[in-house]
Amino acid sequence: MRTLIIGATLVDGTGAPPREDVTVVVEDHLVTDVVPRRAPYYDRGAPVIDARGGFVLPGVINHHVHGLTRGPLMIVGEPPLDDARVRANLDRLLTQGVTTALNVDGFATVEEAVASSRFHPLTVKVATLHTPTHLQWATEGPFSFGGVKGRHRWTVEKMLGRGAPAIGEAGPGVDAHWSDYTLIPETFRSRYGVRVTMEEARELRLAAEGGDRARVGDLLSGYGVDPGETEAFFGLHEATLEWRKLARKSLEEAIAAAKDFDDPLVLHHTPGTFEVVAGAAEELGGRVIAGHSNFQIHDPDDAARRAKELRNKGAWIDIMSGDAFSAREFHPTPDVTFRLLSDGLVDLISTDYAGGFWDPMLLVAEKAAEAGAISIQEGVRLMTSAPADAVPKLAPDRGRVAPGAVADLVVTHPGRLSDVRAVFVSGRRVELPHRDW
Ligand SMILES: [Zn+2]
């Protein structure tokens, strides 16, 4: 079959300036020609998509996201999402122009990714963190979440051999953030039936780190828990430290695996894990992807300084699309994102998860271009050819619109980069789910 996309403004993924009024010719699963005219003379191709005023660009490649399989969720191995939510996550990405996604939950198997790609047009691949300590940490360590089953006991080697394109996401457990965000609040909920916020949990943790029993007792009674539970809280705190120690060991195994197998390593980068990421970059250079370098950091100068340091060691600097244009739970403002972009410190854009309500990557590129932080073509490059190059086995022959490339394509409505009108996967136009958010 020969399909023509006519009259589009081409943003080809390489960072080259947009070209107006081109025709993209798709034959079978490939782009076979890019013609510099509004419509080729007497072409017999059918169907024809009249894309005048809209953009045509490579399908977006998302190298860092969660919740796309029925495997364990997140690096901690939480029980999987149900089918409907997995499908909703996949739909959300597809309507945002994503055609390939790397699920970096860590324990999902290659076969669980295949299963997702069987019921959805999006190409889903999975990264691996099946190291011995990581499996032990998630199944027997304090706070094991119960999502990791016998069928997930693969090895990193087996995962890579069966097509996993990267190792990761390694490192979140090392970040004290997890204690505040999940471990302490979850324990309080199950043990006392009390809800504590992340900020309240952090106050308790800091008091325990200082050995301040009186302060812990005061905080507990302030949160509606008997101050007689002070010693029990110190026990909980000890358990979180034990948990982090195991997380650290499993992270070191992941770094060693990236070195042994020469595959990319996706790391959880926040101020809490910066030193670890810097150490890994020192050792592994361009194999390290410093994930979501705009997460949990609110000072643009500080974010730029850290990104520059990691970049100098050869790491790829990734930012997450976040939620600054919608929920604002993770990113109250786009300031850090725009600063990193305008300083030219960003190599890759992904979504991460943002609690399941991430902004479209194309929207971030569009808003950043409007704000003058970056050009449209540079924004598109960071989510197409750049991730294809950073993670070579993720989306081979994709990420650029050029003759010979696989025809994973996005066509937008006139004028707006993020207003996705049509998506092609391997040369076939796929049906876009109705957006109901
Ligand atoms: Zn992540």
From TrEMBL:
GO terms for molecular function: hydrolase activity, acting on carbon-nitrogen (but not peptide) bonds. This is Amidohydrolase. SUPFAM superfamilies: Composite domain of metallo-dependent hydrolases, Metallo-dependent hydrolases. InterPro entries: Metal-dep_hydrolase_composite, Metal_Hydrolase, Metallo-dep_Hydrolase. PANTHER family: ALPHA-D-RIBOSE 1-METHYLPHOSPHONATE 5-TRIPHOSPHATE DIPHOSPHATASE.
